[in-house]
Amino acid sequence: MKNPLKLTFDSGQTALAIRVDQQAELPDALEQIGLGGSRSILVVVGGASKISEADFLRIKRLFTEVLAPIAESLGAYVVDGGTDAGVMQLMGEARSQIGAKFALIGVAPENKVALPDQQEPGADLTPLEPNHTHFVLVPGDNWGDESPWISDVATMLANNAPSVTVLLNGGEITFDDAFYSVNTGRLVVVIAGSGRTADILADALRGEGTDERAKKLAKSGILQYVNLIDIENGVKNLGQIIKDLLSKQE
């Protein structure tokens, strides 16, 4: 574990970041960047750079009208992958748009992301999302290496407070994200109609799926889905589900 970094983005936004090498360092690392205690946790996983424009526009409302406002009203922490793409970009922009103050923590593989002071990042480096407040940089040379760390950070920050994972769209890595949440007993709310992995999982939950990974996850009993086909009811239903889950007393 190294000393915390203060990152300053081109927009003037700042964030605290810390590098960790092993899971045992997480408690001290999180404390060093001002994250501790016990908070309700919202984990957001799903599509990054490969979300279609249609799916992107369809799910955008969920962030500005449901996820960000609920995190703000409950004082919850939000944990995601931290890069300036897909659902992570939507989460950061929603936080900025509503003027929220909740902590937004990105967990990303150190060797796959470009810090804001890297003027000429390599072709395969992805910028961090500038509206996040904290970053945990973890070992890894491949996308997906961050998946177990996202789950570990969320569990540690919750510290027995309620937590829930929201899964939107997504590719292969999103299956891993779902498994890590399920393995820790964290409920995964799948947004049906948001595309790709989310729709495959929703089909499995309806008993209509053929993907073996999706069927295994569906059998866990720790997934449920909200249908986004009717956008108005989808927004309303998701809002109520998330608020109820994060407001419950353990």
UniProtKB/TrEMBL annotation:
<dbReference type="Pfam" id="PF18171">
    <property type="entry name" value="LSDAT_prok"/>
</dbReference>
<feature type="domain" description="LSDAT prokaryote">
    <location>
        <begin position="39"/>
        <end position="231"/>
    </location>
</feature>
<dbReference type="InterPro" id="IPR041482">
    <property type="entry name" value="LSDAT_prok"/>
</dbReference>
<protein>
    <recommendedName>
        <fullName>LSDAT prokaryote domain-containing protein</fullName>
    </recommendedName>
</protein>
<dbReference type="GO" id="GO:0099604">
    <property type="term" value="F:ligand-gated calcium channel activity"/>
</dbReference>
<dbReference type="GO" id="GO:0005886">
    <property type="term" value="C:plasma membrane"/>
</dbReference>
<dbReference type="InterPro" id="IPR050927">
    <property type="entry name" value="TRPM"/>
</dbReference>
